[in-house]
Amino acid sequence: MQEDQIKQLQKLAAAKRAELEKRQNRDEKTQTPFHFADRLNKAIKEKGSAICVGLDPRLEQLPDFIREKHFSKYDNALVAAAESIIEFNRGIIDAVADFVPVIKPQIAFYEQYGHEGVRAFEETLQYAREKGLLTIADIKRGDIGSTADAYARAFLGKVNLFGKEVFAFDCDAVTVAPYLGWDGIKPFIEVARKHGKGVFVLVKTSNPSSGDLQDLVFKNKVKEEKDLALYELMGHYLESWGADDLGESGYSFVGAVVGATFPDQAERLREIMPQNIFLVPGYGAQGGLARDVKRCFNEDGLGAIINSSRGIIYAWEDSDIYTEKDYAEAARGAVLKMKKDLESC
Questions:
Q1: So what's the pLDDT on residue 327?
Q2: Is the pLDDT of residue 25 over 80?
Q3: Which of 286, 276, 293, 308 is nearest to 342 (CA)?
Q4: What's the pLDDT tens digit per position in 221-275?
Q5: Which residue, 51, 310, 317, 335, is the most exposed by fewest CB within 10 angstroms?
Q6: DSSP labels for 235-264?
Q7: Hey, which residues does 52 pair with through a beta bridge?
Q8: Which of 135-139, 163-167, 232-236, 280-284 has the highest mean pLDDT?
Q9: 345: CB partners within 8 A, 6+ apart
Q10: Does residue 16 have a pLDDT over 50?
Q11: Would residue 2 count as lying in a domain?
Q12: What is the mean pLDDT of the chain?
């Protein structure tokens, strides 16, 4: 082989290596391949369900056989608590993964057990991802500047470890509190946009006293048509925050937390935010009904995910059929019952 041919082949090989490295770097930067709203809506269509299972483990309500197994094995009670939670959550995830697109662990139920609880939270997220589920970290963070940015990078983005960027919790979405205004929301939106993640902002929550602040009426500074309740103004702000980045499905990666327990307000917010996905707590144990959550959806059948926590993960407690050892099967049955209920309206 002539020397010039060898040089050409070496040059070609070097070019291929450079292209491969470039592609790998590009893939590293865009690990999540597409828009959060598109991923969520795709999962909803594939599963035929808009149900979100809240994983809020209360140690005292876990089946006795799980607790006894780990508390007899580990001298450290916090380790035993974490292992109990991990086993319980895996059982729930295995049982419901075929029927739901997303799970939502509330971090407070894990943080109360210190670093071992956080480990259980992290392992729960990882296991859910392995089962093909999207994950929403219910963290309700609210701060500004570098603190908000650190929260956003921890849960949605990457942290820089001396030149190497790695994901920490790597959740698909988070919940955030908007009381500090745009300064507290902007870091989450920027990180979410970069990594194909989602942000759900508290707008009209399901708790009974939410109206103390959220229903306050004051002069409309956004539109001159009429005065607005605070939750309506928050809806207008949120709609504008996500308007510039819609996915192919027509929805924003910036969503709203809207409680099922206030259906009239939910219907009004649907009018204000037609292209924002609602995360809807309050169904079931808190009193929200299927006919209430129906108002959260758009005519295309999309636009909302309905959360249920206690009614699913502790379904065996109120059952005449299932025992505690059947907790996962009971959860599966509760999901199917909820799915049928939602489809009936």
A1: 97
A2: no
A3: 293
A4: 655 677 889 999 999 999 999 788 899 999 999 999 999 999 999 999 999 999 9
A5: 317
A6: HHHHHHHTTT-B-TTS-BSEEEEE-TT-HH
A7: 102, 307
A8: 135-139
A9: 290, 291, 294
A10: no
A11: no
A12: 90
Q: What is the mean pLDDT of residues 267-291?
A: 91
With a pLDDT cut of 70, the percent of the chain lying above it is: 89
Say how far apart CA 86 and CA 59 lie, in whole Å: 11
**Is 60 inside any structural domain?**
yes
CATH number of the CATH domain containing 75: 3.20.20.70
Write down the pTM of the prediction: 0.88
> Distance from first CA to last CA of the chain, Å, rounded?
75
Among 109, 75, 72, which Cα is nearest to 89's?
A: 109
pLDDT at position 288: 80
Domain assignment present for 9: no
Catalytic residues: 140
Q: Residue 28 burial by CB count (10 A; 0-12/13-18/19+): exposed, middle or buried?
A: exposed
Residue 338 lies inside a defined structural domain of this protein: no
List of residues 6+ apart from 10 with CB closer than 8 A: none
- Find where tokens 């799970």 sit: 103
Structure tokens at 53: 């299972």
Residue 59, both tokens: 């140690």
Q: Give the residue numbers spanning the domain of 301.
A: 34-309
CA 153/CA 297 separation, integer angstroms = 31
- Pick from 89, 97, 149: nearest CA to 119: 89
Lowest-confidence pick of 3-17, 65-79, 95-109, 299-313: 3-17
8 Å CB contact between 175 and 54: no
Phi, psi of 314 (to 5 degrees): -115, 25
Measured between alpha carbons, how far is residue 141 from residues 23, 106, 188, 294 in Å? 35, 12, 10, 28
